[in-house]
Amino acid sequence: MRVLLVQSWLGGDGPAVFPIGLACLAASLSGHEVAAFDPNVAADPLGELAAKLRDFAPEVVGISLRNIDSTNTRVNVSYLEPFGRLLETVRKHCDAVRIVGGSGFSMFAGRLMAAFPAIDYGVYLEGERTFADLIDALAGPDGDPSAVPSLYRRTPSGEVHFTGETEKIDLTDLPSPDFGLLPLTPYAAVPWGVGVETKRGCALTCLYCPYGFLNGRSYRQKAPERVADELFRLQTAFGISHFTFLDSVFNFPETQARAVMEAMIDRGVTLSWSAWFTERGLTRDFLELARRAGCATVIFSPDAFGDRALARLGKSTSVAEIKAAYRLVRDMGCFEVSYNFFKNPPGQTFFSAAAMVAFILRARLEMRRRAHFELNSIRIEPHTALEKAAQAEGLIAPESDLLQPVMYSQKRTNYIDKFFNILLKAAGK
């Protein structure tokens, strides 16, 4: 079958990121004719998509809806209107079967199937196996996908039926992503534009995070040598100079991260990279290995700067560990460091907010432009512990439609949220 893979349009919001999900799907579609289109790097997104549809004449169009909105930004930007326009463009210009998947779709699968009747099938959670099985079923003599698991489909009467969730994929069973699916040049212009994963799953229990729902709580790891081979190919065949690790936390478990970095050094990978790190257990020895392997930017997401707030957020770190990790990165003098904090998380106090501001000012004074900070809101998302906490606090009703963004801000310290919003607005963020 002719299959066109399309990244959902963000309407011009934010820099383009290489659609790694589509690259994974493409690598799993052996025996089919596959093409791809990303409207986010097109001068005329919908016009060029229409031309692609006419020229390629796909029998199936698979759309990756990775993000519903800009999530934690001060001014939330919805991507549903651009997604609807993209879906309508596909419907108007070809008769292909329309399949939607991606993390954003999986978070709101039933709701999106109801809201967008132009979606024929929805792929729930990890898509490589389900999407490939669906394409094979549609290509078969009967064209019956009813036995494909993890699939939302419409019955002849128009009702939406879910075929039931399947087990998580063993990464050793998957081919490497097809990084040649689209030209990498537009994405390589962004420091984090090209991503590589070493594992899936997250055993951490952050209150607000849906990664456990999306990828599972247990780690499924790639062989370190395979990761190094993928990176070496990116370096030699595609000529990129930097990338980011997509793992929710790169250095946990530490044994996998060390093995990956040692394999990179042995393979001759010389790319510059960034990754998300946890402060807990971070050592100078580990950071020295990371530097030898090409790490240029260490990203932390402590989210709060008080032990009470950290505990309420379900974080595995303490303020003392945050400070110790900062000193390590500062004293080594070879990294850039980025921090994400929430403005007014659960457990926030005036004193912890003041301590966070003091920490930011000190880091900017000591590290100057090598230290970067983001102050974010917390979007309440389904399938998270924060959803239940917000219901218990009376911030949302049990039946709240979270497809429309609802931000969390602790009631008794809401003035802190307002104060930070004034500062961020003045700074143009």
Count helical runs. Answer: 16
Relative strand content? 15-25%
Query: How are the strands of the biggest sheet laid out side by side?
Result: 2-1-3-4-5-6-7
Contiguous uncertain segments of 5+ residues: none
Number of strands: 17
Q: The biggest beta sheet, please?
A: 7 strands, mixed
Instruction: Characterize the overall form.
Output: globular
The averaged pLDDT comes out at 96
Q: Percent range for helical residues?
A: 25-40%
Radius of gyration of CA atoms, rounded to a whole number: 22 Å
Which class do the helix and strand fractions yield?
A: alpha/beta
N/C terminus separation? 45 Å
Task: Give a brief rundown of this model.
The chain has 429 residues and is α/β, with parallel strands linked by helices. It has helices at residues 20-27, 45-56, 80-93, 103-107, 109-115, 128-139, 185-188, 211-215, 224-236, 254-267, 284-292, 307-312, 319-332, 350-367, 385-392, 414-426; strands at residues 2-7, 33-37, 60-64, 97-101, 121-123, 151-154, 160-162, 195-196, 199-200, 220-221, 242-245, 272-277, 295-303, 336-342, 371-376, 378-379, 407-408.
